[in-house]
Amino acid sequence: MIGDNYLIGQVVYSIQESPDDEQYHYAQRMFVRRFREEGRKEISVNICEDETVEIYVPTWFEPEDTKRFLDENGRAILDERAMRLDEDRIKHSNAKPLTYDSKLPFLGESLPIQIISSDDVREVFIQDNAIHMKADLDDAGIHATLLKLCRNMAYEYLKPNA
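Given the sequence above, the corresponding structure tokens read:
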């Protein structure tokens, strides 16, 4: 493989029809890494887990040829990428819903949930190896509260010391 790989930010334009018969123009950005390989006779497209696209081309393939290829096939590549991302999302969405009986993964440990008394003004905190949060939250609420706890802890760690 020749060391001629570089990043191309390619915008692929498309027209989408809406349910009310209006057409919307929109653009999606696709980051493409191009690799030129000795002895390659045809183009190969690889969609990576990080949503980037790798294109392997013959050594005689010029950058203009890559742009033309992406202009002609970009929509199909984006559709394939979206389909794979949907499959991954479905595969990973089989997690059990969070309840107050769940043990929440937090910094490498599984911590139980404790319900905060109604007179406490805090929404979420950690104390005595347990995550304390308000009562009457559903799965999405528990998840959002846990994310809020992580954001607050990250802010406390990363905020400027002024």
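DSSP finds two helices and eight strands in the chain. Try to locate this feature in the token string yourself.
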